[in-house]
Amino acid sequence: MSKSARQSVETDLLLGMEDVPLAKLESQTESLSADARIAPTVVVAGASVTESARLSRSNPISGIPTSDSGAQLDELRMRHDRECLHCTTVRGHTHTVFGEGSPSAKIFFVGEAPGETEDLTGRPFVGRAGQKLDEMIAAMGLRREDCYIANVLKSRPPDNRVPLPSEISLCSPFLVEQILIVSPVILVPLGGPATKLLLKVDLGISKLRGIWTQWVPPAASGRAPIAVMPTFHPAYLLRNYTAETRAAVWSDLKAVMNRLAQS
Ligand code: URA
What we know:
Layout: H1 3-14, H2 22-33, H3 69-83, E1 100-101, E2 107-111, H4 116-121, H5 128-139, E3 148-151, H6 165-182, E4 186-189, H7 192-199, H8 205-208, E5 213-215, E6 226-228, H9 234-239, H10 243-262
Parallel strand pairs: 2-3, 2-4, 4-6
Antiparallel strand pairs: 1-3, 5-6
The structure holds uracil.
């Protein structure tokens, strides 16, 4: 076995894919090396921001220099907690969960909404699904703190239900701002709600995962589109811990790693 094939198998073990046949993994790695999974682009419109952002070197809302992403994220967090029409009016949650990670991350994971542990701690993806996400990130050879992690909705829906469209439309403009500030190379929506929001398509995650698309930032931001690789939510992976689902997620993550290596 070549050194790279051995490394790939070792990484698959980290992701808990030990019973996926090696031959299958090797053929996946080979087909990905040609980046054959890059599919036709889906062009997506984002939310609008003020026109002045186009020419300005400062964030048009905070006035903070765009070079200081950490300060911009801090300011956005405070503004979200003050002004989000969903999170300031909904009842029953303990903390809002803004998001965390490197302000200059190349990979930005987008989840659905905080669960119980996230609600109690104020941090994204720290419960069981978060542990699986940590394993996925480690299997990619990355550290959690090198990535950025946030959710479509920043407060826990009652009884962990799926976020409502009305809730998403009030809270998600803050996610759009977060993405613009971090300006990652690749967005990885985890599961259906995050993928549907970014791609503005009403298809199930099974049809969208594993296919490269693009998120087009609001026109007024003047920013270039960002590559998107949707994959299954780690909670779905845990509920459906089959060789097939694990291989699908691992294939998506390998596509992300290949693209990052080329960037
Ligand atoms: N599930 C999510 O979508 N987000 C979290 O932060 C935790 C679990």
